[in-house]
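User: Just a sanity check before I run the rest of the batch. Below are the structure tokens for the first item. I only need the designed sequence back.
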């Protein structure tokens, strides 16, 4: 869901975390489910003298379904948007967590990828803003993070006064103001 756009504002990027970015969550979650199912089997064996296979299977199936559903909900309820004026993150279904910052407040854009994330072609794009380190503004688990960084760069250049993304030089400012008045 995109934020409401101001006149002249255009969307440069819109997306969710990649499905590949939640594979780690799924693997860890399913391992926990397997351990719980194993423990249920051990406990029923100790208590009854025989393992309750039906209960172990039910625990495994319900646990796996919960893990898959939780990952899917987390992914589809997180929305990232880059416009020509701002960055926007929206999370949640029932309660909403919305983060937004103007492009001019972005000081640095970095992306991080672990070895597995490089293989999966996903990563986290971290925006350093004028608000400082206490304000985490991260597009987590996006596909092709270098492309997201490039789109932020293009959006920043599109709104910059000189068209280059930098402040105008003294010579450019003098040209814009015209000859000195006598």
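Assistant: Here's the designed sequence for the first item:
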């Amino acid at each position: 869901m995109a934020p409401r756009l101001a006149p002249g504002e255009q969307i440069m990027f819109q997306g969710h975390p990649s499905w590949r970015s939640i594979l780690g969550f799924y693997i860890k979650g399913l391992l926990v489910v397997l351990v719980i199912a194993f423990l249920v089997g051990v406990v029923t064996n100790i208590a009854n003298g025989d393992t309750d296979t039906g209960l172990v299977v039910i625990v495994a199936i319900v646990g796996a379904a919960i893990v898959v559903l939780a990952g899917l909900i987390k992914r589809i309820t997180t929305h990232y948007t880059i416009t020509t004026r701002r960055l926007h993150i929206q999370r949640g279904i029932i309660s909403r967590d919305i983060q937004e910052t103007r492009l001019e407040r972005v000081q640095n854009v970095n992306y991080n990828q672990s070895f597995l994330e490089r293989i999966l072609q996903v990563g986290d794009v971290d925006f350093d803003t004028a608000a400082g380190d206490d304000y985490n503004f991260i597009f987590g688990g996006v596909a092709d993070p270098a492309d997201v960084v490039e789109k932020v760069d293009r959006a920043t250049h599109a709104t910059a006064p000189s068209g280059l993304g930098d402040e105008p030089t003294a010579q450019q400012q003098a040209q814009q103001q015209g000859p000195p008045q006598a």
